[in-house]
Amino acid sequence: MKNLTDSFVSVEHWSSAGSFEFNTDILATNPINLSVVLGVLIFFGKGVLNDLLDKRKQRILSTIRNSEELRRGAIEQLERARVRLRKVEIEADEYRTNGYSEIEREKLNLINATCNSLERLENYKNETLFFEKQRAINQVRQQVLQQALQKALGTLNSCLTSELHFRTISANIDILESVEEITD
Prior knowledge:
Layout: H1 2-9, H2 26-98, H3 101-159, H4 162-183
Transmembrane segments: 32-49
Organism: Acianthera recurva
Family: Belongs to the ATPase B chain family.
């Protein structure tokens, strides 16, 4: 150890002020480098480390406070739930002591209302079926009439020549004129 400290302090080892040399003795330079690095880290890192620790402490404290608030809220909810449970148990006891006559009455009312609803739905269904049937019949009538008219027009167009067509139009005009004279 004496040799090690001598290499740090020894004036012989350090040359005069005019020249600069590197110390290649690893055992002598590593402790110096480590002590310098540790000194810098402690000097500059102390504030950062303190800030980090303070922030961590604040987060832990706020988490503890939040946990306490949540615990208090959970206790309050538990008490409210217990009160509601007691009320429900009392109501259940009242239902048992008073009997199930109210339930039976409600059940009968519900059955009657359901039957009435089913009857109305059946009537609506029958009316809808009737209207749909009438609509389908009307559609078929319209399609048959349209097809008959198209077939008649096709037959007329294939049978009529220009001269026959002209005579038919003239005859219809004469009929319309005579009807007009009668109505005047």
